[in-house]
Amino acid sequence: MPAVPIIFGAMAFLGGILVAAQGPIYARLSEGLGRNYLLAVFLAFTTAAFVTGIMALATGSFRGLTTATLTGSPLWVWLGGMFGAVHVVISMQSIPVLGVTLFLVIVVTGNLVGAALYDHIGAMGLVGRPFSLGKGLGLALVILGVGIVAKA
């Protein structure tokens, strides 16, 4: 196997490990703020915006930023940040009740069901990829897995 897919696969795996840490970190931050979930999300996203802003400045990413580049995309592209904030609020509230493992198994299941739907209808500019029996069986096994993890 070529090295590039292995490197990106390893990066994706590391990303998954980091995402698994976010929920407990955010839940603890919220607890330290008197269970103020919205303030915790604001502070977490402020930190993320600051760090990525410094990285963008250091790499020259802002050079191509113009009014035209900001307004040239459809309005729905701005929903990504909102969806991320909603997900973080949900994780802060759900992880103390469900635990990290069950929460993330359910999240991944939601990711996969959403992905199958988005592929099928060609949402957000994607090339349509029809739903198939194989995809349905795979998703059914994932959903069965949620039940197994929930009972474990």
Summarize, please.
With 152 residues, this protein is mainly alpha-helical. The protein has helices at 3-32, 37-59, 67-71, 79-98, 100-121, 133-151.
Overview of this structure, please?
The chain is mainly α and 152 residues long. It has helices at 3-32, 37-59, 67-71, 79-98, 100-121, 133-151. It has six helices and no strands. It is globular, with a radius of gyration of 19 Å.
List keywords for this structure.
152 residues; mainly alpha
Helix content: over 70%
Main sheet record: none
* Strand percent estimate: under 5%
- The rounded Rg comes to 19 Å
User: How does the overall form come out from the CA principal axes?
Assistant: globular
Unreliably modeled segments: none
Integer tally of domains: 1
Distance between the termini: 36 Å
Output the structural class.
Answer: mainly alpha
Number of β-strand runs: 0
Q: Helical stretch count?
A: 6
Rounded mean pLDDT is 92
Elements, N to C (H/E): HHHHHH
Keywords: Membrane, Transmembrane, Transmembrane helix
Pfam families: DMT_YdcZ
InterPro entries: YdcZ (IPR006750)
Transmembrane segments: 6-25, 37-58, 70-90, 97-118, 130-150
Secondary-structure map:
Blueprint (H helix, E strand, L loop, with lengths): L2 H30 L4 H23 L7 H5 L7 H20 L1 H22 L11 H19 L1
